[in-house]
Structure formats: structure tokens, C-alpha cells
Amino acid sequence: MEQICILGCESRGIIAPEIYGHFAEHIGGVYYDGLWVGEDSPIPNIRGFRKFIVDKFRVIKPAVLRWPGGCFAETYNWRDGIGPRENRPKTVNWWYNNDRRVESNAVGTHEFMDFCEMVGAKPYVAANITSQTPMEMRNFMEYLNMPENTTTLAAQRAENGHPAPFDVKYFGIGNENWGGGGNMTPEQYAREYIKYATVCGSVNVNGAKYIACGADSWNMDWTERFMREFAHRTNLWGLAFHYYCGQAGDPVAFTKEEWNTLVDRASQMETLIERHSAAMLAHDPDKRVKIVVDEWGCWHPGGSGPSKGYNLFEQQSTMRDAVIAALTLNTFNNHCDRIAMANVAQLCNNLHCLFLAGGENAIVTPTYHVFDLYKEHQGARQLESASTDKSLSVSASEKDGGVCVTIANKNYDRPVDVTLSAFALPLGDTAEITALSADDPHAHNTFENPDCVTLSAPETAAVKDGCVTVSVAPAGVTRVMIG
């Protein structure tokens, strides 16, 4: 019997709800025909967005949603997405050379903000600094956030149906500027960041937080050089890096060795956080700048999703993806003193998604169920934990007198029985145990079998002598709620 001990006297702080963030770029089938079907569609919708997704997404308490890119932001003109839909231009999408799709701009600023309001998420806008001037970002912020009846752009917002400001709190100043966002050096990008943040200062009327483009995964040199050049010259809340754990074998028909390879790569998120944090400390010893993981997840070869390759970068999601999502969220919880936001990529029909949709069909993936299990951590006080089995990923938190423990079993085919106890933390008399597991690690949901992988019904277990026994299935995820 393995042991997990929760340490009630040791905590890294509050788990920011924004750690449970999401990303919805205009790419492939994320919006058309994923999230968006249009008001006139026979598919049940709420003001054009799929009702199934709106209802399900709201359940998991999405804290933040990043938009419109990603790389799509590099050439996005926000003015194309406002005003009457029939007057909006069709434009070449950033990804046109990959899938020959054009952008209808049917989903623009007002539609996106409406979706955020429907599901309870805070909007996070990735601003285009690659192909537009600082004045255009400033104007976009003015349109979004200036009080009613103050400026011409605020009046235009009212004419387009939203007199009150949108009160956007998060702005990314650029995206992947080391690559498609201009192929800049860290020093060059730092200077661009300083320029844009400075120009936008006069319209930052609501204390909005700015997020700078950080490194591509392991490039700590970018982090250190950006921080050195930036030298706190202007407003900066967070520095974002991206990490995709890559691919190992077929998205569905992977081997045990390929399972282990990808799970090991995902587990390196902890090392990444520690190394980027260390690179920042020389120029930010007080840790004023937060770490944001703007994009994370698995990136399998495309074509395994229900569109059979029509939707760019669409992939099927199995229990392997669920376990990777779980261990990644555990890592973020356990580094909540440094991680202030993270956004899984992406929400629908793309990469490590929570939803797959097309036509009248829409389903949740196993990854969705992980976010459902983990939502109780949001806003809770993180608790340190210790496990005798290193193949288990664990995080714990307490809120309102209750304790939430989430456990991911990284073993492909070995269950683990655990005795869960606490030090300097009184536990209640009973525990509620909910599991996400399947008989086969390759299990996944399809349009034909949408509930192949789903959460178990909660089971009640007694807490005896301060301990509760839990069995964690192979390739499974378990949540224990006590108190």
C-alpha cells in the first residue's frame, strides 16, 4: 500500500482560477463549425454559439479564455470583426496555406465577448503587434474598455450593441514573437513591448494586466535576455511561455512505450517552470512578474478527429491526453506561487481540446472531464503533499473547510492502492471519491459513442484514524473530496 500525506502546515498560496484557462483561436474548425453555428442554424444555439458547448463549458467554471490567437492574431485587424455581420470582409486566415480556408469574421469582438459572458470566463485578448502599429492596439483597447459616452470609439461600441465597456482585464502584447510573430530577438521584442505598453497606457482605465511573449518551451535564454532588456521600464504583469509535449506514436493506437514517452515529456513541465523562474530571478528578484503558460498540451499528428483531417490540427483525445492534462494541472497547482495563468490549447476541434463538434454532433473529450474534476481547486489554498510512489502525480488544496486531492496515475497498466492521510490538518469523517478511468488506455469518445469515457458516480468512503484508502486505476485520474 502506497502512502500520500497532505501537509496542512505547508502551502505555496492560493491557486489562481486563471490557471484553469482556455484558448480559442481562429484556426481550422475551432469556431466554424465548432463553437459557432450561427443564430439561424437548426442546431440548438444561444445567439449563434452551440448550446451544448455553452452549457457544458459553463459547468467547469472556465476562468479565462484567450482570443483571437495564437498566430491568427499576427495579421488580425480588429475592425474587421465589428459592425453588421453582413458588412464584414472575408479575409485570408493566417492558416490559409495549410487548409485554404478564409475567415468570415462572423465571430468578432462582440460575439466573442458575448460567449465569454455566457460561460463566465474572463476575456484575454492577444493583440496584434506584428503587422499593426501601437496606435491600433491602443484604439482597440479604447473601443473595448473606455466608459460609455466618453469617446468616438466608445460611441461606436454602443452603436454596435454594447454601450457599457467590456472591461477586458488581460492583454497579450504579441504572440510567439520569436517565430511567426516577427522572428524577433528577445531584445528587439522587449523594445517593441515597451513601446506598445507605453502607448496604451492612456487607455488602460481599468487596471488591465499586460502579458509579454515569453519563450518557446526550453529557450531560457529568451527569458533571461528579455528580462534584462525590459528592466521594468513599464507595466508588465506576466511573461508567457508555450510548451507542447509533442507527439509519440498514433494519437489513438499508441504503444505502452509511446505512452511512457509522452507522459514523461509532459512531466517536464515542472522543470520548465523552475528553469524559467530561475532565469527571471536575476532581473526580478522580488518576483513581480508572474509566469503565464499561454499554450500547453499534446500535439499529435492531425487527422484522427471526426472531421478526418478537414479541421486543421484536429486530433482525438484518449485517456493518455486526460492523464497528461491532469498531471499538468497538478503541476500548476503545486507552483501556484509562480504560475498565475495557463491556457490549454485548444477549446474545440483542435489539438488538446475539450470538445469535438461538427454538424449536429458535439461531444466532450476525456480532457473535459479532467477540468470538471479539478474545478474545486480554483481559488483554494494549495497544500503541499508527499507520495511514496513517484508514478503518481498529486496536488491538494483546501477551501471552505473542505480538502480536495487530485491524483493522476501515470502507469499504463498498473493500478495503485493508496492510503491518504494528513499532517497538521484535521480531516472529516467521510470522503467522496470520483474517478475518470477506462478499461483501455486508448479509450476515447466519438460521435457514435459519446460516453465511452466519463466520470464515475461519486463513492463515499470512511475516514478512519485520519486515513482514507483510495484505489487509482491504471491510466486513470481520481479526485478525493474530504469534509
Which helices and strands appear, and what pairs or packs with what?
Layout: E1 2-7, E2 21-23, H1 31-35, E3 45-46, E4 49-50, H2 51-59, E5 64-67, E6 91-92, H3 96-99, E7 102-103, H4 109-119, E8 122-127, H5 134-145, H6 152-159, E9 170-173, H7 186-199, E10 209-216, H8 220-230, E11 238-244, H9 256-267, H10 269-281, E12 290-297, H11 319-334, E13 339-345, E14 355-358, E15 361-364, H12 366-374, E16 381-387, E17 392-399, E18 402-409, E19 416-423, E20 430-436, E21 459-462, E22 467-472, E23 477-482
Parallel strand pairs: 1-19, 2-5, 2-13, 5-8, 8-9, 9-10, 10-11, 11-12, 12-13
Antiparallel strand pairs: 1-16, 3-4, 6-7, 14-15, 16-17, 17-18, 18-23, 19-22, 20-21, 20-23
Helix pairs in contact: 5-6, 5-7, 7-8, 8-10, 9-11, 11-12
Search tags:
2 domains; 483 residues; TIM Barrel; alpha/beta; nine-stranded mixed β-sheet; eight-stranded parallel beta barrel; Immunoglobulin-like; 12 helices
What would you call the shape? globular
User: Major sheet, described briefly?
Assistant: 9 strands, mixed
| Helix-strand makeup class | alpha/beta
The number of helical segments is 12
- Unreliable segments of 5+ consecutive residues: none
Compute the CA-based radius of gyration. Answer: 22 Å
Task: Tell me which CATH architecture of the largest domain applies here.
Answer: Alpha-Beta Barrel
Would you tell me which CATH topology of the largest domain applies? TIM Barrel
Helix content: 25-40%
Mean pLDDT: 97
| Quaternary organisation of the protein chains | single chain
Q: For this structure, what is the CATH homologous superfamily of the largest domain?
A: Glycosidases
Task: Please report which band the strand proportion falls in: under 5%, 5-15%, 15-25%, 25-35%, 35-45% or over 45%.
Answer: 25-35%
Strand order of the largest sheet: 21-20-23-18-17-16-1-19-22
The first-to-last residue Cα distance is 24 Å
> What is the total tally of β strands?
23
What is the CATH C-level name of the largest domain? Alpha Beta
Number of domains: 2
